[in-house]
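Section 3.1: Structural characterization of target chains.
Under the original work plan, the team committed to producing a structural model for every single-chain target entering the pipeline before any wet-lab resources were allocated. The record below documents one such target. The sequence was received from the expression subgroup and is listed exactly as submitted; it comprises 300 residues.
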Amino acid sequence: MNIVIVGQGAIGLLWYHQLSKNSNNRVSLLCSARITSLPPEILFTDLENRTKTTPLTLANNTALSTADVILFCVKSYQISAALTSIINHINAKTTLIFCHNGMGAVNYLAALSQPCYALLTTHGSKIITPFHAQHTGLGHNDLGLINSSLNAEVELEEQIVNTLAIALPSLTLSDNIKANQWLKLAVNCVINPITAIDNVNNGQLLSEKYTTLIEQLLKEVIAVAACEDIRFDFNELKTKVLLVARKTAENCSSMRSDVLHQRPTEIDYINGYIIKLAESNKISVPKNEKMVQQVRKMTN
């Protein structure tokens, strides 16, 4: 497959390295325009702490126009600009896949003629230095069509699923990706802002001192989700959040990392998304509002 990956961040480089290992794939990387110096290869450190090199092939207009798949691995707030910058160079049959945190970043799918998918991953990856990524934890990928007005081509969809599953196991094709997106959003609404505000690893949220706040945030998320026909059981959702915190106990959340490096965060697409839906449904979500306010203060 001809695959273009947009974004040279931790997840983008993870997919670039893994997909490039298959000689049947032609993989190229579209980097941010602000990058002025590009290396001839990327460095990748695997789970066994072995570092390898992969030649860096940069995407051009030809790669974009002939791409079978374009995989967006950028921050939520970068999606719109990234898509706008290349939309005139891609063809109608190219499959667009969006891999990012939060929701509400791709609200204009109805105007796109291309099939669009969400890719949710729990694999851990971090940047060591520019163009050097490290795979920090095994996870799972969920893939699902998000512009349901279009019908996926079954044969192409199967090829995409197989290609991604071979590159970075394991992967599930979901016919209800919205439910998966909401589950990930609910988890992120707890783990990301609290760890960023208190500057703690994920595992520290297992402390009793966070129990009340976690429960309050989840109750607000559950109320808002119900307006979108997404039903959560409170106890099951709380158990899921704590399980993620336990499994990623030593991890630094992406939002905490962004705050520490004084980068913009995805708070507007995580807790901020909850607030927007709450306002339109006249629901009070004071704890999520407080999270947004505190994170914004830390990065302004």
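The two ends are 42 Å apart (CA to CA).
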